[in-house]
Amino acid sequence: MSENERPAVEPASIDQALAPDWWETHRHKVYIALAVAILAILAIGAFAWTQQKKRLEARNALANATTIEELQAVAANHEGPPAAAALILLAEDQTEAGELDTAFATYTRFLETYPDHPLAAAAMTAQGSLQEMQGNNEEALALYQQVTTLYPSAYVTPFAMLNQARIDRAMGRNEESQTLLQTIITQYPASGFATEAQAMLDIQVQ
Predict the structure, then answer these.
(1) Would you place residue 176 in the very low, low, confident or very high pLDDT band (cuts 50, 70, 90)?
(2) Which of 175, 19, 155 lies closest to 147 in space, CA to CA?
(3) pLDDT exceeding 70 applies to what percent of the chain?
(4) Which of 7, 59, 133, 134 has the fewest CB within 10 Å, making it most exposed?
């Protein structure tokens, strides 16, 4: 054996590990290791319990929210699906109350906070409707076009396209309107959207 080589250290056998002298030498380290493991398990359990408690509190708060103020509190004090739902309900209530600018801002907050939410396309479409209600057809048209571009597979997209076609026609853009209506008929055959598009197209042709 060369000078640089060292003999391999034999691992302790079970008998050696359980011997009184081994336990006296290492028991402090064992206690520390056990304490750390127990603390880690308790921390994980406490975190999971806290998260579950927060989710339950958020769901209960949303279920009990019946006013604009209560929905605002849910959106402000909670996060995740209940807070997202609270923002949508809040914007709807604000719209019904005639607070159109406030409702638009609430939808904007929803879209900024939850851009990938399943209701994102619906929120943007609602913003377009709010702009129409205020006579801002160009702004409404831009929002409907965004829905079509950003959310081509969303369930509200054909509705946004119909709104685009209607505004285009109202603004004298008949060619653009007819193109959109034909697209709806092609992409959504045998649907209510296609029926509506065909009816609008028939009126334009007359």
Answers:
(1) very high
(2) 155
(3) 67
(4) 7
Q: What's the CA gap between 143 and 204, in Å, rounded?
A: 24
Q: Render the burial of 35-57: b for 16+ CB within 10 Å, e for the rest.
A: eeeeeeeeeeeeeeeeeeeeeee
CA distance 89 to 40: 40
Handedness of CA 37, 41, 44, 50 (dihedral sign): negative
200, 169 Cβ separation under 8 angstroms? yes
Q: Is pLDDT above 50 for 120?
A: yes
Position 147 scores a pLDDT of: 95
In the prediction, which pLDDT does 6 show?
47
Burial class (CB in 10 A: 0-12, 13-18, 19+), 190: exposed
Query: Are 158 and 174 spatial neighbours (Cβ–Cβ below 8 Å)?
Result: no
Counting every residue, how long is the chain?
Answer: 206
At 186 the three-state DSSP class reads: helix
Contacts of 35 (CB under 8 A, 6+ apart): none
Query: Is the CB of residue 78 less than 8 Å from the CB of residue 58?
Result: yes
Structure letter (DSSP) for residue 134: T
CA 80 to chain centre: 8
